[in-house]
């Protein structure tokens, strides 16, 4: 077993090095099976590694009132086993064959994957086809995963310092859209659900025509297509998944909120804005603004608030790009007894500068380099490429090639675009001011 681990580390390192040097262009082929499953293949023989992934276009936004948390719950439930995989054996099969695996859920999609030495490609396809075709969904599995998810909620949210701030932001920015519920949802909704509701949720969303199967790495495309047909072809498609975006009314005056977290000793002062969804050009502009404000020691907020004035221990600015909308968040942890008003003043001064003046050419050149570095790092492993390809198809109007177009979009964004986006979306009358404070949480 120790030898296998050493070999796996060598394979992973080799894959990382080879891909980092060539991540500017990703070749792929794609097609649909008769049951509606979209398949994407990327071939790379530089290292004997293969990533097998399935992205289901279902997340917390597809849930209904009173039954939140279903998508995240299924992230766990679909590891319970299948007609041909006994309970508790899924991950053991992966590790026994020298692989790694995981899954994650967002507001918009659920992503499962395995990474294997390439001679175990068929094992990965078998595992994911079993998950899709006939998973075991019964009271025993629901009860087991109910406890697992409750423990995850305690560790990642309820008992974790600052663990709930993104949930509070979402709750305040969205009045009607399901994004207001967060990803993990309410455990009382899971506890109240009947077994038939879980089965129905699976039948509705975890079907081939609502999924993308992406294989990236050391593969023979012809043999891989034959294996895919064998394992996934027999799975019946389901009814078309129909989703209607819920439109939010514009925010026209500041939202002020306070939240208490017993796990923290230092307040977190935040501003948040509702911005366009991830498949827009402006979402990339907002990502660039994040880098200007808080990436690295030379960023505007860090240099001003941490280095010079020393009124902040840390600063942050980031764009959470979701399918229907985005959430843009700026914040700081106070230092030297700095007041929330002082922190807000500092943050707003830098935002106003972005809205008024063009950033310098030097800052712009540095920003372009940061975007390219981010791109290379995100696609430096086969699983990163697999996820990026599936993301392009799922969220960019079925444009799988968005991966190869992304850098060009960033390079086309001008200093004027940055100024104009800051003026349009970071309006003081369109924001949330959140005071995330030490103390016992209070129900709202």
TrEMBL record:
This is Peptidase M16 inactive domain protein. One of its GO terms (molecular function) is metallopeptidase activity. The keyword Glycoprotein does not apply. InterPro entries: Metalloenz_LuxS/M16, Pept_M16_N, Peptidase_M16, Peptidase_M16_C. Belongs to the peptidase M16 family. Pfam families: Peptidase_M16, Peptidase_M16_C. GO terms for biological process: proteolysis. Keywords: Hydrolase, Metalloprotease, Protease, Zinc.
